[in-house]
Amino acid sequence: MQSTAQTIPLPSSRRRIPRPRLPRVNGFFFFILPGVSFVLSLTLFPALYGIYISLTNLNLGYVGYSFVGLENYGRLLEWDDLGLVTRNTLGFVASVVVLQVAIGLLVSILLNQKLVGHQVMRSLTILPWVLPSVVVGLVFAQIFGGSRLGIANYVLSLFGVGQMSWLADPALAMALLVAVSVWRGVPFTVIILLGGLQTLPRELYEAAVIDGATAWQRFRYVTLPLLKPILMISLIMGTGGALNSLDIPLALTGGGPGSATELFSISLYKQSFFHLDISYGAAIGTVMLVVNLVLIVLYLLVLQPRRSANHD
């Protein structure tokens, strides 16, 4: 016997009123919000405050200060050593970034191979990054000291070579500064690129080998295109680190001999803490911030993968 029961509609007063569906907020946002807030509090606020200070005449040798507008930037444009420091900074940053990324890419590819002792070599590669930068600068300043106490001169004397004034020659001092900075920064680049290499799909390399691709072709047409986003991150971070580098240049050369290795970071430090002219140092720091942002935008425009205009 079939049931003939019918569904009796509820009175309008008892009908369930559908609730409006609110858009869901991605839960990932709440996980990154504390970290983003912490980072912004340590970067955005000091940057904005530094821009504000650059528009004043704040000097630690005086009690008060007032708003002076772009006066400090005018002083910067009239600086006699502006051209020399600009050339030093651009040459230093370009040399460090190119060598750091090139050597880091080569070392990361070698460490990514399943060779004997590659785990030990990975640990040894990271050691320069563990050492404090100031200690690295002071140690290499002692190694390349111009007297007999300099380790480099002592080693050369064992082979009958006379003493060399390593840090008294402008070109040699800049070359040593670049070399030490690269030695210190390569491990960080290796860590980033090695992590990127380990995420690349092995199937593509196996297919390339089957197709008869050589090692260079696999590197050019498989590794580099897939590693392009990681290389962009390495370039951005390497450029920012080299442009803002202070500890190693200050401990190794101090900007000398004369102003041969003077960088914007050293000038900022000297103006702010030697001459106590905080506002002028803030103006130099603001210029460095703008240069950092411009370089980041250029990297993104050149290296960011372009989406095709035609979508399927």
Automatic annotation (TrEMBL):
Entry's localization field: Cell membrane
InterPro entries: ABC_transporter_permease, MetI-like, MetI-like_sf
Predominant localisation class: membrane
Domain (ABC transmembrane type-1) ranges: 86-299
UniProt key word Cell membrane: yes
Pfam families per record: BPD_transp_1
Family matches, as SUPFAM superfamilies: MetI-like
Topological category with respect to the lipid bilayer: Multi-pass membrane protein
Keywords in alphabetical order: Cell membrane, Membrane, Transmembrane, Transmembrane helix, Transport
Membrane-spanning segments: 25-45, 90-111, 126-144, 174-197, 226-243, 278-302
Keyword Membrane: yes
Homology family: Belongs to the binding-protein-dependent transport system permease family.
Name of the molecule in the record: Sugar ABC transporter permease
Source organism of the structure: Alsobacter ponti
Top-level taxonomy: Bacteria, Pseudomonadati, Pseudomonadota, Alphaproteobacteria, Hyphomicrobiales
